[in-house]
Design goal:
The complex is a heterodimer of chains A (about 375) and B (about 325). Chain A has 13 helices and eight strands. Chain A is an alpha/beta fold and about 375 residues long. Chain A folds into two domains: about 25-325, Thiamin diphosphate (ThDP)-binding fold, Pyr/PP domains (Rossmann fold, 3-Layer(aba) Sandwich); about 335-370, no CATH class. A six-stranded parallel β-sheet of chain A has the order 2-1-3-4-8-7, with helices on both faces. A two-stranded antiparallel ribbon of chain A has the order 5-6. Chain B folds into two domains: about 1-185, Thiamin diphosphate (ThDP)-binding fold, Pyr/PP domains (Rossmann fold), CATH 3.40.50.970; about 195-325, Rossmann fold (3-Layer(aba) Sandwich). Classes of the chains: A alpha/beta (about 375), B alpha/beta (about 325). The interface between A and B is large, with 44 and 45 residues.
Chain lengths: ~375, ~325
């Protein structure tokens, strides 16, 4: 393992000699399909935002192999603490894109009841995908606590925490690696190094030679892999999950990738990302790379590819219809779930809101725009 | 039943909760074999093992962040922040994470955890071992904030906090740790997390207080009694959610109100109590609502006895309010 060299598996011609992903043909195709589904979902969300139907999204283009390759190394009963730019994690493990779309619309069927911005998913079924937070790095240390709970109960489950390159500067990152190292907590840290933290490039984020090297000071084995090579991500993550499950503690994996869009739909990356960088990384598209490997090993045909693409796009469109049709959450949802039981002062405030709605009419809906 | 200190009552509350529920664990800086800098967790490591009462790295963010993860995943962590003054690296985890997790996940993820922390002045701790930061936390929907002032309440409220399904900040008045004693049942019991305590009934002036200010107010009330003023003392003890109905009843009872806390005045907890009374029962008020508080300055060291409200200042406020 190395914290400075970049480990790749899939070669330029699509071959990956000597590497066995340990997946059946069907599983390989599921992996590929999840990449397509992630991109279809991502593209649709951007279109929905551009046409004013949702307020916000976070582009995932370019990082899909990091997301899906990481997810593929975990079991369904493990816990996931993903970054907000990680659509592939839930999709790989069977989260219904329609349920994610309900969150994008903040409707009544959204698991967070319209309380969070789009892309802040929360699921307990089919996997524990822990409610995503906007403040950077807070979830990394929580993943260590959840991992401690697994260890304390003698369960062989593992936690996954993913975050961007900017996340490595957060308090949570350092607390998390320190605690996980001391406790030998069963957790895998995935740093999605996508080049920029909003507009801040790597060289303004750290003077370290890599992000992976930061793990070593905490006694956490660390490795740096090609994040656009799904086999390289999977290989490193499978090894890390095995270590964690065996009781040998945490691992930090830096996946070097590139964000082929803005930080969010409110951001214009042309102001700070040199055009040449986009051109360079466009030639290293993670879906193209995996496709090449699948064609080379004859696991995928052009016909199958077209079929899967169509299927994914239709699945996303169906989700948009359902999410559009679902009503907004009821006014009462402002007041519920603050505490397990509604305290008296919140009951009174809720009554005042309902009373005002009755006397003066309901408040106007906003336009859903968000500036960041 | 035993006559024990507030500190011992905290220790017994922790022990009782840990005996009762194997998912309860205590951790923080020096909490393990040493038993904490005030000895609140004394002997818990030897009794329950290092897996259930242990030291952590020196990182408040790490302590609270990991506690949140544990609480979401089936444990009942009781995290200690050594002094409340040191809690601020964890402010993000408390305010943005623990307090909002149930809400933002639509009830899918919850954080049943307790943060214990000694607060307040009186030990010559200077700026960073003396603060009373309750107002920062009472401004946070989703948190519960509790401050006991007697050994009985310390144990009962702590066990209730540990059993509660939501995150509770349990602030312990360090000035009272060893200076008050009281009768405490040996068995486990709980005290409701949203009910004030009537300390002493009286007819002329109601004084609302909590934590280390309660004994100060009791002394002032005894002095006022000598001058013929009957003081009604209320220990708010569960600051969030507050027993609002109880506050209004006690305010109406005398029509004259003094609020005492050692935290700074501006935007302090007393402001909320005062506003609550003014908004709801102002027609019963026969005198302006008066506050006795710490000054709006950092907490001083050498002159802390001038900064902290004492019976002299509280008595003065009671007299003025009674005479108005």
């Amino acid at each position: 393992m190395s914290t400075s060299q970049l480990k790749s598996v899939i070669q330029a011609d699509g071959a990956s000699p000597g590497y066995d992903p340990g997946l059946s043909d069907a599983e390989l195709l599921h992996m590929y399909r999840t990449l397509l589904l992630t991109r279809a979902f991502d593209d649709m969300c951007i279109k929905l935002q551009r046409s004013g139907r949702i307020g916000f999204s976070v582009p995932n283009r370019g990082i899909e192999a990091t997301s899906v390759g990481t997810a593929s190394a975990f079991r369904k009963d493990d816990w996931f603490f993903p970054s907000y730019r990680d659509f592939g994690v839930g999709l790989y493990h069977g989260v219904d894109p329609t349920d994610m779309m309900h969150n994008m619309f903040g409707n009544k069927l959204d698991t967070s009841k319209g309380r969070q911005m789009p892309v802040h998913f929360s699921f307990v079924d089919p996997i524990h995908l822990v409610s995503i937070s906007s403040p950077i790095g807070t979830h990394i240390v929580q993943a260590v606590g959840a991992a401690y709970a697994f260890k304390q109960r003698g369960e062989d489950k593992v936690c996954m925490a993913s975050f961007g390159d900017g996340g490595t500067s957060s308090l949570g990152f350092h607390s998390a690696l320190n605690f996980a190292g001391v406790w030998k907590a069963p957790v895998v840290f995935t740093c999605q190094n996508n080049g920029y933290a909003i507009s801040c490039p790597n060289e303004m984020q750290t003077a370290s030679e890599s992000y992976a090297i930061k793990g070593l000071a905490y006694g956490v084995p660390s490795v740096r892999v090609d994040g656009n090579d799904i086999f390289a991500v999977r290989e490193a993550t499978v090894a890390a999950v095995a270590r964690a499950r065996a009781g040998d503690g945490p691992t930090l994996i830096e996946c070097v990738t590139f964000r082929m869009g803005g930080h969010s739909t409110s951001d214009d990356p042309s102001k700070y990302v040199p055009k040449e960088l986009f051109e360079h990384w466009a030639k290293r598209d993670p879906i193209d790379i995996f496709e090449k490997a699948l064609f080379k090993s004859k696991k995928l045909t052009k016909k199958k590819k077209a079929e899967l693409q169509k299927e994914c796009e239709e699945q996303v469109i169906a989700g948009v219809r359902l999410a559009t049709d679902a009503p907004a959450p009821g006014l009462e949802e402002i007041f519920t779930d603050v505490y397990a039981e509604l305290p008296d002062h919140l009951r009174r405030q809720g009554e005042m809101a309902f009373d005002l709605a009755k006397r003066k009419g309901s408040a106007d809906a906003g336009d859903g725009a968000f500036p960041l | 039943m035993a006559n024990i200190t507030l500190l011992k009552a905290v220790n017994e509350g922790l022990r009782g909760a840990m005996q009762n529920d194997p998912s309860v664990l205590c951790f923080g800086e020096d909490v393990g074999p040493k038993g904490g800098v005030f000895l609140a967790t004394e002997n818990l490591t030897s009794e329950f093992g290092e897996g259930r009462c242990f030291d952590t790295p020196l990182s408040e963010d790490g302590i609270i962040g990991t506690a949140i993860g544990m609480a979401m995943n089936g444990l009942r962590p009781v995290a200690e922040i050594q002094f409340q003054d040191f809690i601020f690296p964890a402010f993000d985890q408390i305010v943005s994470e623990a307090a909002k997790m149930r809400y933002r996940s639509g009830g899918q993820y919850t954080v049943p955890m307790v943060i214990r922390t000694p607060y307040g002045g009186g030990i010559r701790g200077g700026l960073y071992h003396s603060q009373s930061g309750e107002a920062y936390f009472c401004h946070t929907p989703g948190l519960k904030v509790v401050i006991p002032s007697t050994p009985y309440d310390a144990k009962g409220l702590l066990i209730a906090a540990i059993q509660d399904p939501d995150p509770v900040l349990f602030m312990e008045p360090k000035a009272l740790y060893r200076s008050v004693k009281g009768e405490v049942p040996d068995e486990n019991y709980t005290v409701d997390l949203s009910t004030l305590r009537s300390v002493k009934e009286g007819d002329d002036v109601t004084v609302f207080c909590y934590g280390a200010m309660v004994p100060v107010v009791e002394k002032a009330a005894a002095l006022a009694q000598e001058k013929g003023i009957s003081t009604n003392i209320v220990d708010l003890r569960t600051l969030l959610p507050l027993d609002e109905e109880g506050v209004l009843e006690h305010a109406k009872r005398t029509g004259r109100v003094v609020i005492v806390h050692e935290a700074p005045r501006f935007c302090g907890y007393g402001s909320e109590v005062s506003a609550l009374i003014a908004e709801n029962v102002i027609e019963y008020m026969e005198a302006p609502i008066k506050r006795v508080t710490g000054f709006d300055t950092p907490f001083p060291n050498t002159l802390e006895h001038h900064y902290l409200p004492d019976e002299r200042r509280v008595l003065d406020a009671i007299e003025q309010t009674a005479a108005y």
